[in-house]
């Protein structure tokens, strides 16, 4: 067992996006592709003597091979210890939890989140820092800049580690601890929520369906919902993580979790439905014949946070990404706490959480979380809702409708145009940006523009500025249309159009969402020329 220095050729495209480096599996399978990226990361991080690294992924195709390669590189870089989840498994929130709990200097998470897996699917790698959250852009940009000039990597030539047996082994001077991927996370959840009340709820016959979508949350949901909380066996479906997610798209939205939505809409619907994504950080909440938007979920949790023991003292503030609806802003105002608006990407919440400025965070993209870690957390959101249902004795629909009656309803929808031509997408955005200066005061359909800009965020903690984070057109009545290009796709470009309309009148709270937003949908087409630029007459996904 020795450390080898291997000559390599740089790959030009190793620039992380919204959430790490995501590429097709075949790209990652190129010689030294992963080794180059990880070596660039380690070189950028510098000395790691005595430090601990956390390592695991969502179990998708290439996960195991990547874990073994990273262990060999980590040993050569001089890490003292690596904590790796059994089977190479760690959900994104569990990795964040383990990093924090064990004082690791950081962690490597192998995931392309909700993107399809398998040999023809996607793979991804991201680095989280010592606070448990995604690396800031300054770090990921530095890694990329280093990667373009990399000419060698260093790795031990040690044989593969047995990832399926708990316990310790060594590679060179480094200890490899294969840990239970669920235990630390489950303990953290037990401290935040009233497990006794939720157990009593299930004991009273409350029914639930949790769809793990053949991705990483299966083992976590089984252990916590069916094990610790006594939900009947079969509550968790698609519970075994598969390398290709069973050919499904593990993205918990009404389109990709269609069978759960159909179940919840039917005569035999259980009381509560939920799903999570590939790496376990996203959540979808569904009531009996009632879908909850992620933006509303954040607002409802913020308004009722004190039902959960972990939040009994109240929340310090809320943060949401700019395109997320402003429902949470109204709750924050009522509670007398600040509401921060950040660019899309969980990493932007990190400083606010570290500085104690906010307790809850959420995004329209089915992400919700809190200061209990530095990632969004799918199962946490589900447990929070269970705690709320147990404490209130009300249904999901009743809770949300009462919320609307009190705060008003923010009708909300996102229209995605996926895999469109990148150049055409860039032209659309450029043309839109060029028009922004003249839009304020203009009449668009039934709306009058109050503000039109390209969202620019100045981090209130460290002053970092993030520009061009999405074009927003805000109307005088508070309605909004937001345009941005996705930073997580791997094929062409994805245009996201976010639509939001505020309605105070409870008599108007029960319209079909697309109908309620029809005027704004027309404005979006008119102002951006979507069909002309993209060649698409309709969005590919509506959530
Ligand atoms: C990931 C990130 C989120 C982000 C979402 C959508 O899940 O962690 O923070 O909201 O992707 O990002 P996109 O750039 O594709 O809109
Ligand atoms: Zn995810």
UniProtKB/TrEMBL annotation:
GO terms under biological process: carbohydrate metabolic process
EC number: 5.4.2.2
Listed Pfam families: PGM1_C_vert_fung (PF24947), PGM_PMM_I (PF02878), PGM_PMM_II (PF02879), PGM_PMM_III (PF02880)
Enzyme class (EC, first level): isomerase
Entry-linked Gene3D superfamilies: Alpha-D-Glucose-1,6-Bisphosphate, subunit A, domain 3, Alpha-D-phosphohexomutase, C-terminal domain
Cofactor (UniProt): Mg(2+)
Entry keyword set: Isomerase, Magnesium, Metal-binding, Phosphoprotein
Stretches assigned to the Alpha-D-phosphohexomutase alpha/beta/alpha domain: 14-146, 184-286, 295-407
The reaction(s) this protein catalyses: alpha-D-glucose 1-phosphate = alpha-D-glucose 6-phosphate
Keyword field contains Cell division: no
Keyword Zinc recorded: no
An example Gene Ontology CC term for this record: cytosol
GO function term, MF aspect, one: magnesium ion binding
Cross-referenced InterPro entries: A-D-PHexomutase_a/b/a-I, A-D-PHexomutase_a/b/a-I/II/III, A-D-PHexomutase_a/b/a-II, A-D-PHexomutase_a/b/a-III, A-D-PHexomutase_C_sf, A-D-PHexomutase_CS, Alpha-D-phosphohexomutase_SF, PGM
Family (UniProt): Belongs to the phosphohexose mutase family.
Protein name in the entry: phosphoglucomutase (alpha-D-glucose-1,6-bisphosphate-dependent)
């Amino acid at each position: 067992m020795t450390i080898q220095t291997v000559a390599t050729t740089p790959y030009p495209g190793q620039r992380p996006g919204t959430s790490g480096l995501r590429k097709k599996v075949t790209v990652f399978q190129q010689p030294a592709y992963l080794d180059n990226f990880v070596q660039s990361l380690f070189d950028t991080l510098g000395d790691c003597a005595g430090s601990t690294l956390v390592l695991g992924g969502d179990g998708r195709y290439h996960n195991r091979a990547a874990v073994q390669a990273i262990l060999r590189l980590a040993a050569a870089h001089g890490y003292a210890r690596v904590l790796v989840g059994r089977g190479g498994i760690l959900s994104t929130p569990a990795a964040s939890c383990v990093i924090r709990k064990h004082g690791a200097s950081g962690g490597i998470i192998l995931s392309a989140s909700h993107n399809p897996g398998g040999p023809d699917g996607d793979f991804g790698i991201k680095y989280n820092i010592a606070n448990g959250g995604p690396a800031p852009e300054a770090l990921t940009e530095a890694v990329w800049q280093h990667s373009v000039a990399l000419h060698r990597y260093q790795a031990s030539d040690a044989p593969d580690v047995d990832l399926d047996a708990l316990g310790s082994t060594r590679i060179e001077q480094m200890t490899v601890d294969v840990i239970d991927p669920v235990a630390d996370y489950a303990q953290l959840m037990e401290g935040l929520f009233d497990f006794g009340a939720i157990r009593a709820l299930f004991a009273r016959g409350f029914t639930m369906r949790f769809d793990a979508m053949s991705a990483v949350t299966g083992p976590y949901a089984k252990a916590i919902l069916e094990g610790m909380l006594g939900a009947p066996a079969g509550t968790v479906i698609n519970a075994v993580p598969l390398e290709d997610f069973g050919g499904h798209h593990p993205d918990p939205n009404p389109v990709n979790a269609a069978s759960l939505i159909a179940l919840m809409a039917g005569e035999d619907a259980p009381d509560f439905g939920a799903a999570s994504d590939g790496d376990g950080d996203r959540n979808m909440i569904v009531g009996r014949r009632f879908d909850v938007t992620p933006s509303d979920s954040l607002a409802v949790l913020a308004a009722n946070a004190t039902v959960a023991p972990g939040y009994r003292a109240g929340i310090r503030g809320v943060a949401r990404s700019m395109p997320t609806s402003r429902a949470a802003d109204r709750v924050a105002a009522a509670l007398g706490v600040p509401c921060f608006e950040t660019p899309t990407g969980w990493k932007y919440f990190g400083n606010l959480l570290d500085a104690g400025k906010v307790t809850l965070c959420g995004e329209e993209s089915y992400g919700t979380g809190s200061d209990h870690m530095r990632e969004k957390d799918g199962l946490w959101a589900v447990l929070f809702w269970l705690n709320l249902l147990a404490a209130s004795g009300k249904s999901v629909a009743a809770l949300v409708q009462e919320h609307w009656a009190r705060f008003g309803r923010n009708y909300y929808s996102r229209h995605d145009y996926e895999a469109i031509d990148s150049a055409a997408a860039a032209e659309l955005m450029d043309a839109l940006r060029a028009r922004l200066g003249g839009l304020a005061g203009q009449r668009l359909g039934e709306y009058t523009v109050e503000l039109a800009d390209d969202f620019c965020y100045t981090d209130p903690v460290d002053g970092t500025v993030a520009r061009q984070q999405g074009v927003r057109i805000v109307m005088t009545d508070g309605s909004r249309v937001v345009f941005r290009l996705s930073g997580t796709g791997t094929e062409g470009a994805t245009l996201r159009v976010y639509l939001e309309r505020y309605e105070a009148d409870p008599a108007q709270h029960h319209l079909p969402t697309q109908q309620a937003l029809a005027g704004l949908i027309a404005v979006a087409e008119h102002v951006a020329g979507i069909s002309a630029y993209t060649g698409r007459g309709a969005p590919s996904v509506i959530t």
